[in-house]
Amino acid sequence: MSAVVFALAYFGFACLAPHRRRTPFTRQMIGAAALFFALAGSIAERGWSIGFLVWFGILTIAALAVALTLTYAPRLVGHHR
Q1: What are the angstrom distances between the C-alpha of 23 and each of 9, 20, 37, 53?
Q2: Neighbour-count burial for 10-41, b at 16+ CB within 10 Å, e otherwise
Q3: Which residues contact 74 (CB under 8 A, 6 or more apart)?
Q4: Residue 80 has pLDDT above 70, yes or no
Q5: Please, what is the average pLDDT of the chain?
Q6: CB 46 within 8 A of CB 54
Q7: Measured between alpha carbons, how far is 81 from 72 in angstroms, rounded to an integer?
Q8: What's the Rg (C-alpha) of the chain?
Q9: In this predicted model, what pLDDT tens digit does every residue of 44-68 receive, in sequence order?
Q10: Do the Cβ atoms of 41 and 8 come closer than 8 Å?
Q11: Which of 4, 9, 46, 81 fits 62 for a cystine, CB–CB 3.0-4.6 Å?
């Protein structure tokens, strides 16, 4: 289940990553929903107290992964130069 939470967090951050001009509103809502479902999955798996802690850790790793992906291969996330 943690892999699903990580995938949802990565997808959410990829949707929320700024585009050349501005990120469309629908894409922002999809990204926020993905992060919410990642939180729900983490809480469902481990309970309230540990679920939040695990979710924050996974968010940190997913944000780092998106940042590195945008740095080295922006086309993988849908951002073109």
Answers
A1: 17, 8, 21, 29
A2: bbbbbbbbeeeeeeeeebeeebeebbebbbeb
A3: 80, 81
A4: no
A5: 88
A6: yes
A7: 12
A8: 13
A9: 999 999 999 999 999 999 999 999 8
A10: yes
A11: 9
In this structure, the number of other CB atoms found within 10 A of the CB of residue 56 comes to 11
pLDDT of the residue at 69: 86
Token pair 């995938």 is found at 7
- Token pair listed for 15: 């949707």
Measured torsion, CA atoms of residues 30, 31, 35, 37, in degrees rounded to the nearest 10: 20
Residue type, 40: A
pLDDT of residue 78: 62
Each domain of the chain, given as residue ranges in start order, spans: 2-76
Angle between helical axes of 25-46 and 2-16 (0-180°, round to 10): 160
Give dist(CA 28, CA 16) in Å, integer.
5
**Alpha-carbon torsion (5, 11, 15, 19), positive or negative:** positive
